[in-house]
Amino acid sequence: MAVDMAGAARPMKTVLHRLGVRARRRRPLLFLGLLGFVLLWPLAHPAVDVATMPEAALQDRAAESIRAIQLGESLYRSVHGYYDRLECVIQDSCAAINPYPPTYLDARLAWATRFGYRFRFHDGPRASTSRDGTLSPTALVAYAMTAVPLDADAGLPAFCGDDRGGLYRLDRGRAPTVDAGRCVTAGATPVGN
Questions:
Q1: Mode of pairing for the β-strands spanning 117-123 and 113-114
Q2: 36-70: buried (b, 16+ CB within 10 Å) or exposed (e) per residue?
Q3: How far apart are CA 72 and CA 170, in angstroms?
Q4: C-alpha to C-alpha distance for 183 and 145, rounded to whole angstroms
Q5: Cβ atoms of residues 149 and 117 within 8 Å
Q6: Nearest to 122 by CA among 150, 148, 154, 153
């Protein structure tokens, strides 16, 4: 007994063809549904309030901010041959006239208060030489960045990082000591140095 396979395959082809046509018609709807989901998802979740963040997250973010500033300053120094104030590192505008200056640092890192900490940039001695012959009026040989908790009773540590790449922690929010743009490490605990 011979079976006609071509005849049996025709109904299957017709069903698959109909499903394919329906799928092509529904793709725009699927695309629009996914697009709507992606666009509306951030609105469904409220922004994180810093006041409700646990202390560990706040101190980690303060330490990460100082590390990011150290990285931005080291990149700036690799180009110019000296460190500089944060506003110059954020938008390379202090040394050379450039219509499209590069950015070595996120501008939010220059905010004085964030994550429950007060941040302060400490100038070191002025630089007298540069790599390309132009010298910013605010060029530095050394710098330090400190982060002190806004609430002294919160039990959060203070931090100090400088141009040498070190990051130091001082317990119970004790204000770090800075001398000539360098963290004084006496009584401070190194953090991942």
A1: antiparallel
A2: eeeeeeeeeeeeeeeeeeeeeebbebbbebbbbbb
A3: 23
A4: 8
A5: yes
A6: 148
Cα–Cα distance for residue pair 131/108, rounded to 1 Å: 28
88-124 residue pLDDT tens:
888 766 766 555 666 777 878 888 888 899 999 999 9
**Residue 120 β-bridge partners:** 146
Residue 2 CB neighbours (<10 A): 4
Residues paired with residue 140 on neighbouring β-strands, in sequence order: 83, 126
Residue linked to tokens 């120094």: 77
In the block, tokens 């000539």 appear at: 180
Burial of 118 (0-12, 13-18, 19+ CB in 10 A): middle
Structure-token pair, residue 20: 């394919």
Q: How far is CA 102 from the centre of its chain?
A: 16
C-alpha–C-alpha distance, residues 176 and 116, integer Å: 16
**End-to-end CA separation in angstroms for the chain:** 83
The predicted model scores a pTM of 0.67
pLDDT tens readout for residues 132-184: 777 888 889 999 999 999 988 888 899 999 999 999 999 887 889 999 999 99
Residue 191: phi and psi, rounded to 5, are: -115, 105
